[in-house]
Every structure is written in C-alpha cells, then in structure tokens.
Amino acid sequence: MFIIDGLSTIILFLFVFCLIVVSHEFGHFLLARVNGVRVKEFTVGMGPKLVGWHRNGTDFAIRLLPIGGACIYDLEDEEEILEESGSIKGNATGDIADSDLKDKAGSDDGFLNEKVGIPYGKASVMKRISIVIAGPLFNFILAYILAVVVTWFCGSTVPVINGLIEGYPAEEAGIEPGDVIVSMNGSSVYLATEIYVNTYINKERPMNIEFMRDGELHSVTVNPKYDEELDRYLIGFNGYGKYIDCRNSEIFKHAYYEFRYGVVGTYKSIIMLLEGRGSKDDVAGPIGMAQTVDTIKDESIPYGFGTLMLNMLNLAMILSVNLGILNLLPLPAIDGGKLVLLVIEALRGKPISPEKEGLINLIGFALLMVLMVFVMYNDIIRWITTG
Fold it and tell me: Could you give the residue ranges of the DSSP H alpha helices within the chain?
C-alpha cells in the first residue's frame, strides 16, 4: 500500500512538473522556429537520457532528474563549417553549386532537410529577445488557461468574513461577519485566499484593511497579534470566503483573479525574502513540491478523482506563474539574465564578447547550482523532520 501511495505521488508530481516545464521550453522552441532559428535539442529534465528521438533537425529527450529542462539552439553555421572543410564547394561567384546541394539533400545526414533556418547567434536582437521572453510568457498563458478550467468546474470564493476571533485585532477594529474585504495595505483583494496570503506576508506590521458593508466603504488599521500555538501573526478572522458559481464571462473574470493572485503572491514572496523577512522554509524545490503534491493528494482523494485532478491543475497554475516570474529575474544563466545581456547588446549596437558572456553565464550557472543544492538539502531536512 505504501509503495502504491508513493508511486501515485510520483506520477502526479511528474504530471505537474512536466506540464509547466514543457510549456516553458515549448515557448522558446516555438518562437525559435517562428523566427527561423534552428533548435538543436529540446529536453525535459536533467542527467542521463531515458527516452530520445530525432525529428526535423531537433533531438528530443526526456532525462532522469525532473529538475529542469532546456531548449538548446544551434549556435554554429553548418554551411560555414562545411565550406571551411571543403565539403561544399562554391562557384566563381561564391554561391554553392546546385550539384553539391543536391548531394547534401540526398545524403544520409539530410543536411538541407534538417538544417533549415539560421543559427541563434545570427538572428536579430529583437528575434532573440522574443525567443527568450517566450518561455515565461507561455508559463503565464498556461497558468491562465488552467485558471479558466479550474474556475469553470469549481467556481470561485469571494472574500467575505464569516466569523471573528474574540479579543483579536479584527474584532477590536469593528470588522463584522458579512463584511467584504476590498483591499489590504492598498493591494486589491478579489479572492478569499488572498486574505491568508496578505496576512502571512505582512507578518507583524500594521495593516490597513478596506471593506464593504451595506454598500459603504470602510477603512481600519489593525496590528496583527502573535499566536504562539500557530507560531504566526493573526488578524483574527475565524473563517472567510463565500462560494459563487461562475458562469459565462464571470468564468474568465474570476480566472483572471486567480491568475493575478498567483502573480501578486509570487512577487510579494520574493520581496519578503529579499527584505529578510522570510525563512528557508518559504523556499522549496522538487522534493518540497512532491511533498505538496502528496498533501494535496491525501486531502483530495476522499472527494474523488475529479477533485484530485482539479487541485493538481490549480497547483500547476500557481507553479507555472512562479516559474514564469522567477525566470524573469535578472540573474545570469536564466531567461532574465539573458534578456539583460540582449538589451545591453541592443543599446550598444554590438554584442558582448563571447568570453565575457561565457564568464557571466558560468558564474550564474555555478550560483544557480549552489542554490539548487541548498534548496534540495532544505527539502530533505524538512521531509525528514516532518516525517
């Protein structure tokens, strides 16, 4: 039973992981093809290859470790290499002879059939920028599509206060059951889940809360109270959220609210970590993600397979937004760092020297590996301690 339970968690984890990673890398792949750039390899995962195939000049692969993926562009010009080696002979005008082209087209390598397009480095700066941006963009597109699906089947939960904890700041400030939260610290609130996220991220700092009551807007400021048993700061809401069944255009509107919740929550979490108000427990890698999948699975199974899959899609939506935003951070070796280098190239009118760019990416990759080791170690320790 334990083996079956563990196997089901692994399958669900791989489903969620592959969905968001394939979407990201497919964005790069599609825009590369649209812009006429050759793609050498499209891979999901890292480490030894499990499955691989070749199609239209691209090697596709699924690798052992589900901790990333890659869309590797062709950086070299095959024609120039062949010309230098004498494999392709030019005529007096410098053009390649038709007979040589036919020979190559009919060769086992399928040079002309598979090497359609140009190397990544020879594409214009704007084309390369569009290719780099496409990865995070496709994560955002996937997230919104998943939000539409989940909202279609599950509806939405608006931020209505159901009850209050006696002696806590919310009650003392005059908030009552039935009040609808409109904003917290100036950030609009559309979903019940946003109340928890805003409270958690805010921690001990004073919070301004705007709410609607009988059509009138009210505003109060509360000082969160520390709860020793829960080990976190509370405002004092004893339940919140009112379910609504979304139909027609309401589906797309509330799906946007879900998508926005993922974006704003990720952004605020990053700011919290940068300000030093977070902890190592706020960061999770593949093992932490698998633990989350296992928890959601255990909570969903009593309600049926449909509920399980919808909760998995909701998790994939949030993680897809996370991946999109994190990849836009201006750090070397990820999409955000590549965008910075491309913008510098566009402003200078010439690219950064390959040596400097290689050094920047090497340093960034090394730092990324150190971070991944730390996150994996943190995941393992948390897994052991939480049992």
Answer: 2-34, 78-85, 98-105, 111-114, 125-154, 169-172, 193-202, 249-274, 286-300, 305-327, 335-348, 354-386
